[in-house]
Amino acid sequence: MQHRRLGRSGLSVSEISYGNWITHGDQVEREAALACVQAAFDNGITTFDTADVYAGTRAETVLGEALDGVRRESYELFTKVFWPTGPGENDRGLGRKHIIESCHASLKRLRTDHLDLYQAHRYDPTVPLAETLRAFDDLVRAGKVLYVGVSEWSAEEIGAAVELAAGMGLDQIISNQPQYSMLWRPIEAEIIPTSQTAGISQIVWSPVAQGVLTGKYLPGSPPPEQSRATGPGAGFIQRMMDDDLLERVQGLRPVAEDAGLTMAQLAVAWVLQNDNVASAIIGASRPEQVHENVKASGVRLEPALLERIDKILGDVVIHEAPAG
Q1: 209 and 182 in contact (C-beta within 8 Å)?
Q2: Which end of the chain is more exposed for a tag (fewer CB within 10 A), N or C?
Q3: Where are the beta strands (DSSP E) in the chain?
Q4: Which of the residues 18, 54, 118, 147 is marked catalytic?
Q5: Can you tell me the distance from the alpha carbon of 53 to that of 148, in angstroms, rounded to the nearest whole number?
Q6: Percent of the chain having pLDDT more than 90?
Q7: What would the pLDDT profile of 129-165 be if each residue is shown by its tens digit?
Q8: 54 is catalytic
């Protein structure tokens, strides 16, 4: 397993990180979840990503159980705050009250006294940015959070946060967590250039496009039972269940074979070719998936092979995020 520095910080993360969105506490039974985390450790993954909202907070609880007893200095633990975690008006967003209280709740569920990275899960236009950044900075100064990041922020939002934090003398953002894959590339136009200038890395989610890039979804055929397309996250994958897109993805199979990789490994390796990507988050419902995907670490894809991928996928690649 290779490691990369996260932004301009001194924090190193594994090139492949383990995430538990729509798996732990939801799609995957407790014992299988614990086995997947152990498989991650066995394969050199040291970076674990979750969020307070995943599975209604149960994902953090399961991950906390899986990490309990493991030497705390041996792994990097990330979580997020923004989405509602309760019925109250202050149980959501990026106001000081919710950030501080959510951090304390996450620490309890994760069975730790500090987070290596605390991320704003989305941008909150209803709260002054200065209040949000100050609350994060206070958590850093209190030792409960070591570094601060964001998730799915636009280039404009990232730039504003960097400028404001510098002017106020606050801890700087070191990461952004966007969706990124061969099929979904909107971050390349503005977010990556802005991030590179500011010393911010990407921790990308869905590098395998919700499983579509594994090639298991076939054009003209129903999705396999117990797959992502039939589980709790089915809504996120429906936009990619198009026969033309699935046909193009099948065209990647010989490319993967020529590279000596599975299709999933090719997809994960592809996002890691971008120098601004510090880590690619993988999810798993079985330990075998972890064993497979980690083999993408350290793989270098030749320019000619990358050109073949672009030619095969053509106009099914999304370069601009939908408005709204």
Answers
A1: yes
A2: C
A3: 3-5, 12-14, 16-19, 47-49, 76-81, 115-120, 145-150, 173-176, 201-204, 277-282
A4: 54
A5: 18
A6: 81
A7: 999 999 999 999 999 999 999 999 999 999 999 999 9
A8: yes
